[in-house]
Design brief:
With 67 residues, this protein is mainly α. It has one domain. It is built from two helices and no strands. The protein is rod-shaped, with a radius of gyration of 30 Å.
Length: 67
């Protein structure tokens, strides 16, 4: 009986140590999602800047035709 308890204790300790050193896929996925979010925000900012630039050019062109 004592041998079984010792083996189970050793297994649980082994799994604990293994889980500490094994690659954490949840952190890796979270990092990838964060990278995608940052890239999307950069692209959104670029699109907004281009849209504002086109709108200002359109207003200046339409304003010059009215004169």
């Amino acid at each position: 009986m004592l041998l079984i308890i010792f083996v189970l204790l050793a297994c649980s300790l082994g799994f604990f140590i293994y889980s500490y050193f094994v690659k954490d896929y949840a952190k890796e996925v979270k990092g990838q999602v964060d990278d995608v979010y940052i890239n999307l925000m950069r692209e959104l900012k670029t699109v907004k800047q281009r849209t504002e630039m086109l709108e200002s050019k359109t207003k200046s062109v339409s304003g010059s035709h009215n004169e």
